[in-house]
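Predict the holo structure. Ligand: zinc ion.
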Amino acid sequence: MIFGVEGQEKLFKTSVLVVGAGGLGSAVIGYLAAAGVGKLGIVDGDVVEENNLQRQLIHAGNVGLNKAESAALFVEKLNPEVSVEIYPYHITPENARKLVARYDVIAGCPDNFETRYLLNDTCKLENKPFVHAAVYSYEGEVAVFTESPCYRCYIPRAGVSHSRAILGSTAGVFGSIQAGEVIKLVTGSEGVLKGEILRGDLSSMEFIRIKIERRVDCPLCSGKLKEIFPENYQDECEVRKL
Ligand SMILES: [Zn+2]
């Protein structure tokens, strides 16, 4: 392996929680399982639908099944040495801390801003690295948040959630990069996107890497936000309650 026996052992001792087993999650789950991560937690309350299969390759043959359950079946076939824990429901402000606390690294693969902010805040409060990715049409981004800055420093308020079709391979590209960042982080490799964001557009094939600045007024990085309150994950997800 490129990261050697030591890296492989580190990976096998690591647990990763993947939130969302959709397009990004399919790539992340597939490559982390193939690479030999020790434990995978998979959170998804949705059911596999026919039109998911253009980008969610791990769910082939499982239309109608819960996505976390379907993903677990895939991992079992690909690499039975990976232990899998499934959570066939949505992550919420009520259950987030409990779920996140059980894992070493969190890979956020949701399709909505509410969950991204919830994961950002929960990971910071639980002191867990948050590997974020998002895709939209031909575009995507990946970032790794460890201490500061955080996702709220990057985007203080949520934009509009788009429901435009995602080119299947866009999710594959950015999900693969996200899986790579998890592996690099765990194995102590250089070049991890810590506090930086990689943005790319597959229609123009332009990629940029930007350093995220810590915001002095960030309620999370300043330590003012100390708990998870459901009020902070509504509408634009700005912090209303401290
Ligand atoms: Zn912040």
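The chain has one domain: 4-233. The chain is about 30% helix and 20% strand.
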